[in-house]
């Protein structure tokens, strides 16, 4: 899942990003509304975690622009105000969900994951394919009832492949969904991660390389 965190309190923004990365999400961070508009114009995000009170360009205007562009991106709006009227106003702007500060990180994570599921065709909470079971919420992977321990990026790549339901996923698509914008697009990190993932998943191999196209399960 690709997430953009937009928050002018840099310590909070960086803490949220670090936590979401530990949950195997690819996360970019910006600290004002103008930078947010620049990012959403370049990258495809599943979810934008958007502070409402932003400098340069207000969060309301960022939300309106995302809606106007007709993006499948979901918006989770954050605010220091817990008033019902503010929550209603935020949702009427086009936000998909609203979370007042301070918040529990576990709740933020759950809401981000719930919104991320709404950007794609609805799938069961636990993904199953080729003898593999993947639970995004618990971050657990099993093959034939044997639990497999994966690093965050390995988990993210496997989740993208599982969600594709047999369709071929290119290396570029994996890079887009599982890594943030600081990753060198010419790196071999996707190939190396897939190789390590194959080894951990064991025999017989379930990840198939489609020459010139990408990977599928």
From TrEMBL:
Domain (OmpR/PhoB-type) ranges: 124-217
GO BP: regulation of DNA-templated transcription
InterPro entries to which the protein is assigned, alphabetical: CheY-like_superfamily, OmpR/PhoB-type_DNA-bd, Sig_transdc_resp-reg_receiver, WalR-like, WH-like_DNA-bd_sf
SUPFAM superfamilies: CheY-like (SSF52172)
A Pfam short name: Response_reg
Modified residues (4-aspartylphosphate): 51
Domain Response regulatory: from-to ranges: 2-116
One GO cellular component term: cytosol
DNA-binding residues: 124-217
Family matches, as Gene3D superfamilies: 3.40.50.2300, 6.10.250.690, Winged helix-like DNA-binding domain superfamily/Winged helix DNA-binding domain (1.10.10.10)
GO molecular function annotations of the record: phosphorelay response regulator activity; transcription cis-regulatory region binding
Name of the protein described by the UniProt record: Transcriptional regulatory protein CutR
Protein role: Member of the two-component regulatory system CutS/CutR, involved in the regulation of copper metabolism. CutR suppresses a defective melC1 gene, encoding a putative copper-transfer gene, probably by altering copper metabolism.
UniProt KW keywords: DNA-binding, Phosphoprotein, Transcription, Transcription regulation, Two-component regulatory system
